[in-house]
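ok, trying the design again with the full structure, not the truncated one.
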């Protein structure tokens, strides 16, 4: 599909929900297809005003739902349950040429709803496997879609040509479009996304509930604990929705995880050194085989570490070097607990391009950089 739209496939696109994901898709479309008119609906008028002020959408206030029923494409970008509700409200209004898609992390329930509403021929499930700990339009970015897997699901009733055109369109805004059945999608994401969030939240609460009165665990928390629990900063409402909508798959995976954790408990209990070594080696080998570039289901950390001499003004020198290059710092500070990481100074920036530039600048000035995998 060429970017000039001469085939007339897309002229107007609507977004119901303009949070992190909806806003990011809208900005990516605007980047690659500035001639397409975008319209938005959000729970707050201030979100619409902000998106309009940035030149992302045409409207700065609420539109009747009927307006969206005549778009070429409507992206449902609210929490999973809300998307299904909007699907039902749109169904009796929908123009047959309007393509509906969603961006939810669970596909089975919304596909079932689309089928029951007679929308199988014009609904394509979608799941951009990218994200951030931050929520809302203010944190959206066209870069969030770059090189991120974007899973598409469907009922076989949908026209093959229509499906493939949409798949090409998603690829053209920077994502890596792949196809899966709703069942396969929900099983896979329960394992690699939904279960990790349950584990992360459970671990955070375990530490909170067992910390000392003076908060020693909170004070020294770093390294592995912060890495494995970073995703707990995601939207609680979103994960409440996901757990309810993908309940069966998630319960199955929790059971499998409990069995695996029990096996680990047995290895530690009996002191089986060979089994423990094999356990950790196998995990390391598989983890090291995973691709670390490109956006993924879990939000990527844009941070790194460097060695720093214990001399007055050293942090200021580093900060000045980066500021001179126009790199904004999200966070900078001394690492006091370095049990699982090298480097004394932790630097966190806002995107991968800034991270790469910052590391190059500091390397050129003689600093030793440590980058996590």
């Amino acid at each position: 599909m060429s970017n000039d739209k001469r085939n007339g496939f897309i002229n107007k696109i609507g977004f119901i929900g303009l949070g992190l994901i909806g806003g990011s898709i809208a900005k990516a479309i605007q980047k690659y297809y500035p001639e397409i008119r975008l319209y938005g609906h959000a729970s707050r008028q201030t979100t619409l005003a902000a998106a309009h002020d940035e030149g992302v959408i045409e409207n700065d206030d609420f539109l009747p739902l009927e307006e969206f029923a005549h778009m070429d494409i409507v992206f449902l970008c609210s929490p999973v349950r809300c998307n299904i509700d909007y699907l039902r409200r749109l169904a009796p209004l929908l123009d047959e040429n309007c393509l509906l898609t969603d961006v939810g992390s669970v596909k089975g329930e919304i596909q079932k709803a689309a089928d029951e509403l007679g929308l199988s021929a014009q609904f394509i499930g979608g799941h951009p496997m990218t994200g951030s700990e931050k929520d809302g339009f203010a944190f959206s970015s066209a870069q969030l879609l770059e090189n991120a897997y974007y899973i598409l699901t469907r009922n076989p009733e949908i026209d093959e040509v229509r499906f493939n055109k949409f798949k090409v369109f998603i690829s053209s805004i920077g994502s890596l479009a792949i196809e899966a059945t709703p069942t396969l999608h929900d099983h896979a994401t329960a394992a690699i996304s939904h279960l990790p969030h349950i584990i992360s939240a459970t671990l955070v609460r375990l530490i909170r509930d067992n910390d000392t009165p003076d908060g020693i665990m909170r004070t020294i928390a770093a390294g592995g604990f912060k890495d494995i629990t970073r995703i707990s900063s995601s939207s609680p409402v979103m994960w409440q929705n996901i757990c309810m909508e993908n309940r069966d798959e998630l319960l199955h995976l929790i059971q499998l995880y409990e069995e695996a954790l029990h096996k680990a408990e047995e290895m530690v209990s009996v002191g089986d050194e060979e089994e423990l070594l094999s356990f950790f080696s196998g995990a390391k080998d598989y983890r090291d085989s995973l691709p670390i570039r490109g956006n993924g289901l879990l939000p990527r950390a844009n941070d790194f570490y460097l060695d720093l001499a214990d001399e007055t003004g050293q942090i200021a020198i580093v900060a000045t070097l980066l500021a001179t290059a126009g790199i904004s710092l999200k966070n900078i500070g001394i690492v006091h607990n370095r049990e699982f990481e090298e480097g004394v100074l932790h630097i966190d920036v806002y995107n991968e391009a800034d991270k790469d530039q910052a590391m190059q600048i500091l390397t050129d000035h003689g600093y030793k950089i440590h980058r996590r995998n």
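Keeping the full-length input from now on. Confidence is low (pLDDT under 50) at residues 1-7, 337-341.
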